[in-house]
Design brief:
Radius of gyration: 15 Å
Family: Belongs to the bacterial CoaD family.
CATH architecture: 3-Layer(aba) Sandwich
Oligomer: single chain
Largest sheet: 5 strands, parallel
Order of helices and strands: EHEHEHEHEHH
Protein name: Phosphopantetheine adenylyltransferase
Number of domains: 1
Main location: cytoplasm
Subcellular location: Cytoplasm
Pfam family, one: CTP_transf_like
CATH topology: Rossmann fold
């Protein structure tokens, strides 16, 4: 059984994230979408809220599990009995950063592979940071986030 970990902050989840989740679920037997607990960042949503949103948008995908973790990704991957990490890429700038992290993970744990998946071109401009900025200034996020969590994002954001 091929299990893959899709880690990220998902603050909030976007249509680009959902695109990667859906496509990964058609390639791998099990996709574990894992929210990183990063105390160094000031999130708009708590880990619990991010997990709740991810569960809302993936409830129809039977081979997707939502979880959270802190610490080293490679340690978490081992605890989930996986050996593949999937990372979504939008642009060359994403690749440079993700390649550095993938090579660091490979140095720490050579048996864990990182697979890069390009997002759909429709979402190549999209990031959680952009969504947060638009929300902060009461802009329209239609088409940026899954409909299932659109109102949740607008009604539950931290001020």
């Amino acid at each position: 059984m091929k299990r893959v970990i899709y880690p990220g902050s998902f603050d909030p989840p976007t249509n680009g994230h959902l695109d990667i989740i859906k496509r990964a679920s058609s390639v791998f037997d099990k996709v574990i979408v894992s929210v990183l607990q990063n105390p160094g960042k000031k999130p708009m949503f708590s880990v619990h809220e991010r997990k709740e949103m991810l569960e809302m948008i993936t409830k129809e995908i039977s081979n997707v599990e939502v979880d959270d973790f802190d610490g080293l990704l490679v340690d978490y991957v081992r605890t989930k009995k996986a050996n593949i990490v999937i990372k979504g890429l939008r642009a060359i700038s994403d690749f440079e950063n993700e390649m550095q992290m993938a090579l660091t993970n490979r140095k720490l744990t050579p048996d864990i592979e990182t697979v890069f998946m390009m997002t759909n071109y429709r979402y190549s401009f999209l990031s959680s940071s952009i969504v947060k900025e638009v929300v902060k200034f009461d802009g329209c996020i239609d088409g940026m986030v899954p409909e299932a969590i659109h109102d949740y994002i607008l009604n539950n954001r931290l001020e």
